[in-house]
Structure formats: structure tokens, C-alpha cells
Design brief:
20% of the residues are buried. Helices cover 78% and strands 0% of the residues. It contains three helices and no strands.
Length: 87
């Protein structure tokens, strides 16, 4: 089954958008929980969403919400994920 390149590009862009928005939402929820002292989203889950294509949402959430910007090794692991995706 052959799909036109435009349809595949649109499907990929839609996928990245959906995963990025979901990743941003997870970061926002984790920030909300951190402020209120609730159970937090595991860092492994945040990084997994970034690895699955949500790294634009993760970076945007880090900068906008100022969340997980100093936390090591989380910050380094997120940078490795982005470098891996870029390559």
C-alpha cells in the first residue's frame, strides 16, 4: 500500500503534536502536584513521553512552567533524548 509523502508527513506531524501536547500536560500536572504535595508523575514516564516524540512539548513545558530545569540527571537525560531524535 503506497501512501503519498504528504499524507505521511501530515500523519507524522499530527503524531508529534499529540504526543507533545500530552507531554506538556504531564509536565503541567507534575508541577501542580509538586506545588500541592500530591503524588508526582514518575520521571521515567515524563522521559518516556519525550522519547516517544514529545520532546518539543517537554522543552516548552520546562521553559514556560520552569519545571525540572535544574533536576539532574533528568535534565541531562532529556538532552540526550533530544540529541538522539535530532540525529
Amino acid at each position: 500500500m503506497d501512501f503519498p509523502a504528504g499524507i505521511l508527513a501530515l500523519a507524522f506531524a499530527t503524531y508529534v503534536l499529540v504526543v507533545s501536547v500530552s507531554c506538556f500536560g504531564l509536565f503541567a500536572w507534575d508541577k501542580y502536584c509538586a506545588i500541592r504535595g500530591y503524588w508526582r508523575v514518575p520521571e521515567a514516564q515524563l522521559l518516556m513521553f519525550a522519547l516517544l516524540g514529545g520532546s518539543p512539548g517537554a522543552i516548552f513545558a520546562q521553559r514556560l512552567l520552569r519545571h525540572k530545569t535544574r533536576k539532574e540527571p533528568f535534565r541531562s537525560n532529556l538532552r540526550r533524548i533530544i540529541l538522539f531524535q535530532f540525529v
